[in-house]
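Input structure tokens:
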């Protein structure tokens, strides 16, 4: 039977509710990154609870929390939030992108890296009973997949094939999504188990369409960010894809900075994001992109890992 794996328990897909597909409640990138940018750390449990309760108040049902080990995943924090507020939280295993990888990636085998991801999904994260429900893979360049990322991509594919858990990606500036899909296919992963992230940062219709035709899912997950294409442009793009029959689209804001979350002094927060997207898109598209599609994509039938 297909389930969705949240940090508290496995649920039936119909329990998921309105879902944002790529978000962050806790972040803690390496010190070298923090020293260059003071707006990168989310570490306040009470603030995270406030954000999730606000999200619940506008009928938010679930958040896919995409912070991985190399970017400061805080599973104890996620558990505290999940116990204090009603929306479901799904935690990612995998790695963020090459510039944040731990030094061990250089010397570890693919099998060793994959085993760690599998353990997060099957046994539990960092000694807790909480388990991951999605595997993250990311690229940090716009021209090629780095050698260390190709190694991790093999491990991600292996973990997926061993567990059934879906794969969600980070594309730097929205690029290389086509290359990510192509290599995952070569590694035995079906495109319909891959969500390609941040595509709304590279709104070239032919490029996005080339990914859509593979059957992969499309992440339009930078809503409400004025430094990128406007929500008006983004909304028109989504509607054009739907009109052409490419409906495997999910929505989010990737609001992984204090300046994006009201309980940290920022804006718009998950509640504000959802409200603004509802004002921009037809209700039928909203329903499919935030309810129907996440229920289908994040559901998997757990396998007994090898």
């Amino acid at each position: 039977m297909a389930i969705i794996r949240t940090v508290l328990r496995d649920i039936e897909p119909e329990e998921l509710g309105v879902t944002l597909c790529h978000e962050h409640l806790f972040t803690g990138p390496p010190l070298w990154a923090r020293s260059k940018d003071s707006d990168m750390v989310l570490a306040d449990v009470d603030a995270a609870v406030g954000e999730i309760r606000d999200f619940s108040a506008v009928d938010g049902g679930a958040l896919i929390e995409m912070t991985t080990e190399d970017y400061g995943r805080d599973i104890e924090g996620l558990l505290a939030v999940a116990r204090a507020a009603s929306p479901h939280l799904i935690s990612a295993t995998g790695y963020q992108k090459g510039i944040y990888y731990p030094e061990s990636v250089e010397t570890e085998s693919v099998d060793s890296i994959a085993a760690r991801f599998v353990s997060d999904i099957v046994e539990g994260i960092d000694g807790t009973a909480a388990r991951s429900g999605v595997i993250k893979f990311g690229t940090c360049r716009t021209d090629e997949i780095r050698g260390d990322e190709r190694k991790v991509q093999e491990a991600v594919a292996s973990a997926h094939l061993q567990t059934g858990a879906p794969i969600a990606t980070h594309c730097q500036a929205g690029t290389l999504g086509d290359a990510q899909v192509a290599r995952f296919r070569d590694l035995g992963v079906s495109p319909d188990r891959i969500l390609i992230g941040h595509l709304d940062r590279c709104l070239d219709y032919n490029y996005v369409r080339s990914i859509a035709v593979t059957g992969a899912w499309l992440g339009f997950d930078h809503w409400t960010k004025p430094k990128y294409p406007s929500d008006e442009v983004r909304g028109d793009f989504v509607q054009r894809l739907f009109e052409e029959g490419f409906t495997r689209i999910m929505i989010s804001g990737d609001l992984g900075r204090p300046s994006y979350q009201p309980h940290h002094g920022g804006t718009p927060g998950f509640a504000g994001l959802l409200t603004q997207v509802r004002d921009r898109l037809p209700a039928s598209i909203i329903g499919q992109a935030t309810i129907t599609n996440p229920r289908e994509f994040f559901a998997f039938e757990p396998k007994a890992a090898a």
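Strands lie at 4-5, 10-11, 18-23, 60-65, 88-94, 134-139, 167-171, 194-196, 217-220, 249-251. Residues 147-163 form the longest helix (17 residues).
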